[in-house]
Amino acid sequence: MSIEELGPWIEGYLDYLHTVRRMSRLTIVNQRCTLRRVTAAMAENRPGVPLWKLPLEDYVRWVQQMRESGYSPGSINRDLSFLRGLLDYAWRSGHAERNVLDGFTVPNDARSKEPKSLSVEEARRLVENCPSRTRVQRRDRLVILLLYGCALRTRELCRLDVPDVDIERQELVVRHGKGDRQRRVPVPEAVWTMVLAYLAERKGRRGALLRTQIRGVRLDTRAVCEIVHAAAMGAGLGREVTPKTLRHSYATHLMDRGVDLAVIASLMGHRTPQETGVYLHTLPGRKEAAVSCLSRGTGGKP
Q1: Please, which residues have CB within 8 angstroms of residue 172's CB and are 6 or more apart in sequence?
Q2: Distance of alpha carbon 98 from alpha carbon 59, whole angstroms
Q3: What contacts 291, CB < 8 A, 6 or more positions away?
Q4: What single string gives the DSSP state of each residue in the chain?
Q5: Are 198 and 137 in contact (CB under 8 A)?
Q6: CA–CA distance from 244 to each of 148, 173, 279 (Å)?
Q7: Confidence (pTM)
Q8: First to last CA, the chain
Q9: Cβ contacts of residue 56 below 8 Å, gap of 6+?
Q10: Which residues does residue 186 pair with via DSSP β-bridges, in sequence order?
Q11: Phi, psi (degrees; rounded to nearest 5) at 31
């Protein structure tokens, strides 16, 4: 069995997740990628040994390698949850004596840290330093505007098609959000003007909204990251600015203007309040102000 194939038993497990557990296609793709990557890493020291036969020490060593490579605790814990599911399935089906990863997680010290975002002035400078003389420059400027003005994830941006632009409602239809969930995102007026101009320049061509100039294929996530990096360097904002930075900036600036947390969660496609609640860290006193409002509403002293 090659590492790339993963083997019929693991493929059977993934099919079980899809047909019985009803997990989304994107979740299955993510699980397959994780299992393939971990299988390749473990094969360097224990070739031919399946994942459900490995001792806990091997997984601890792998976690340490992941942390040294720069992976965040959140990313590692996501992979561990996928592996726990496989090992639990192996244990319940008699392929393993126990699930060695049961209860094993990595402390997530990053939960209390403020997500990186730009100030309003920095965001303005970023957009203003995006030229629009050529067709490629106009496309790149639109990439920046959609990431910041609509809080799109990089993958969501790349998978937009021309029909996903709802002209009548001035919205983007995100059909391939996280967990394969759809949502509609209103487009700010300034960004909408650029969208319409870009569509007019495309002259009615269908397919991917954002394409490469030479081959005319859909932009991928790497290309989007390079566009953001180049724009940030041109604006003097440094190397740390990523597409996720623009998404964080969107949420932070909306919250700074008093937009309700539930509205922001809906716009960003969050599944849980915890995902949006992280932005409370960016505004000192916001939680205290909320408690104060509650006290006044219940007759308590402000």
Answers
A1: 146, 150, 152, 160, 164, 165, 166, 184, 185, 187
A2: 14
A3: none
A4: --TTT--HHHHHHHHHHHHTS---HHHHHHHHHHHHHHHHHHHTTSTT--GGGS-HHHHHHHHHHHHHTT--HHHHHHHHHHHHHHHHHHHHTTS-S--TTTT-----GGGGSPPP---HHHHHHHHHTS--SSHHHHHHHHHHHHHHHH---HHHHHT-BGGGEETTTTEEEESS-GGG--EEEEPPHHHHHHHHHHHHHHTT--SBSSB-SSS-PBP-HHHHHHHHHHHHHHTT--TT--HHHHHHHHHHHHHHTT--HHHHHHHHT-SSHHHHHGGGGGSTTHHHHHHHHHHHHTT---
A5: no
A6: 9, 19, 13
A7: 0.59
A8: 67
A9: 100, 101, 104
A10: 171
A11: -65, -45
Q: Is beta strand 165-166 parallel, antiparallel or unpaired with respect to 171-174?
A: antiparallel
Q: Which domains does the chain have, with CATH numbers?
A: 8-112 (1.10.150.130), 120-273 (1.10.443.10)
Rounded CA-CA distance 155/175 in Å is 11
Strand partners, 171: 166, 186
Q: What six digits make up the tokens of 157? A: 């941006």
Per-residue pLDDT of the chain (302 residues; tens, 9 = 90+): 343 457 888 999 999 998 998 888 888 999 999 999 999 999 988 998 999 999 998 998 899 898 888 888 888 989 999 999 999 999 999 999 899 998 888 776 544 455 688 999 999 999 999 998 999 999 999 999 999 999 899 999 999 999 999 999 999 999 878 767 789 999 999 899 999 999 998 876 789 999 998 888 899 999 999 999 999 999 999 878 999 999 989 988 888 888 877 788 888 887 665 566 666 555 544 444 444 443 343 344 43
Radius of gyration over every alpha carbon of the chain, rounded to an integer in angstroms? 23
Q: At 250, list the tokens.
A: 């969107």
Residue with tokens 């790339």: 4
Q: Which amino acid is at 242?
A: T
- Give me the amino acid identity at 169: R
